[in-house]
From TrEMBL:
PANTHER family: OXIDOREDUCTASE WITH IRON-SULFUR SUBUNIT, OXIDOREDUCTASE, IRON-SULPHUR BINDING SUBUNIT-RELATED-RELATED. PROSITE patterns: 2FE2S_FER_1, 2FE2S_FER_2. Keywords: Iron, Metal-binding, Oxidoreductase. This is Xanthine dehydrogenase YagT iron-sulfur-binding subunit. It comes from Pseudorhizobium tarimense.
Length: 173
């Protein structure tokens, strides 16, 4: 299908809340959430790595759950709340996980970092990881070509500890 043929294909209406802002969109049924975010929404923080759900670079939070955005057709998410790395925090007001990644030098080239951070935030919300081994296992869907895994686990443990000290986890349950 060439570009002009694709443009004439019917579009679907979908309402998405992305980083707190509601968007009423008309999109083709084959557009992935990743391509929607990086294209029309101009949110380039979410990275396209393998485009097959194998690397985790495109991980975002969909209704609070971590998911690979390259595997989700945007039209299937009508009414969903999407949080990308841009929605977690900004340099002047970072999310605790973003701060921990900086403090623990949990990145090198940085390409995987947005997906790693979104996945780590989702992991903590799930509340299933209690040990370093569980953290590493549950983060195994997010690959880092630079090998910053030790520092990534350190950052996640740090935020887990902050939550435990502040009683955040107990209050959320």
């Amino acid at each position: 299908m060439d570009i002009t043929t694709a443009d004439r294909q019917p579009k679907n209406r979908v309402a998405l809340t992305i980083n707190g802002d509601r968007h009423d969109l008309e999109i083709h049924p084959w557009v992935t959430l990743l391509d929607l975010l990086r294209g029309p929404m101009q949110l380039s923080g979410t990275k396209k790595g393998c485009d097959h759900g194998q690397c985790g670079a495109c991980t975002v939070l969909i209704d609070g759950e971590r998911m690979n955005s390259c595997l989700k057709f945007a039209v299937t998410l009508d009414g969903a709340e999407i949080t990308t790395i841009e929605g977690l925090g900004r340099p002047e007001n970072m999310h605790p996980m973003q701060k921990a990644f900086v403090e623990h030098d949990a990145y090198q080239c940085g390409y995987c970092t947005p997906g790693q951070i979104c996945s780590a935030v989702g992991l903590l919300k799930e509340g299933k990881a209690g040990t370093r081994e569980e953290i590493r296992e549950m983060m195994s869907g997010n690959l880092c070509r630079c090998g910053a895994y030790v520092n990534i686990a350190d950052a996640i443990e740090d935020v887990m500890g902050q939550e435990a000290r502040c009683g955040i986890r107990e209050a959320a349950e």
